[in-house]
């Protein structure tokens, strides 16, 4: 199903299909909030302690793992620099990110 665009007043709305993300949804906002809280509101990439321009990244891809979309354990906080660095290479970082979360859990 193709995305359809709706216009209402000055706001722009999209109708999302199953693979699209609605970043404004309550569930998505809550997931991002919980991941940031768990990660101490800082980038979790090794040797980076950035606290600004943070993004919450899905460790296992959104499109490939619909059952993990809003599981806090499938998210990690990254600064914009590291988030851009891993684009299109996400699979290479899955093991690293999961090990970071395991170490954090053990502390």
Strand and helix layout:
Layout lengths: L3 E5 L2 E5 L10 H13 L15 E5 L16 E5 H7 L3 H17 L1
Antiparallel strand pairs: 1-2, 3-4
Question: How many E strands?
Answer: 4
Q: Mind summarizing the main beta sheet?
A: 2 strands, antiparallel
Report the β-strand fraction as a percent range: 15-25%
What is the string of SSEs from the N terminus onward?
EEHEEHH
Q: Which regions are unreliable across 5 or more consecutive residues at pLDDT < 50?
A: 7-17
Q: Can you describe what's shown?
A:
- By secondary structure, the protein is of the alpha+beta class.
- It has one domain (26-106).
- The chain has helices spanning 26-38, 80-86, 90-106, and strands spanning 4-8, 11-15, 54-58, 75-79.
- Residues 7-17 have low confidence and may be disordered.
- It is built from 3 helices and 4 strands, in the order ββαββαα.
- A hairpin with a 2-residue loop joins strand 1 (4-8) and strand 2.
- The N and C termini lie far apart (45 Å).
What attributes does this structure have?
107 residues, alpha+beta, 3 helices, globular
Would you summarize the structure shown here?
The termini are far apart.
């Amino acid at each position: 199903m193709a995305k359809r665009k709706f216009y209402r007043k000055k706001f722009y709305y999209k109708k999302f299909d199953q693979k699209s993300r609605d970043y404004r949804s309550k569930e998505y906002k809550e997931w991002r909030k919980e991941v940031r809280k768990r990660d101490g509101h800082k980038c979790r990439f090794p040797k980076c302690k950035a606290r600004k321009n943070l993004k919450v990244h899905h460790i296992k891809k959104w499109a490939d793992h619909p059952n993990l979309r809003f599981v806090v354990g499938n998210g990690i906080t990254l600064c914009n620099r590291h988030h851009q660095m891993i684009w299109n290479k996400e699979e290479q970082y899955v093991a690293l990110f999961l090990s970071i979360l395991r170490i954090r859990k053990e502390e």
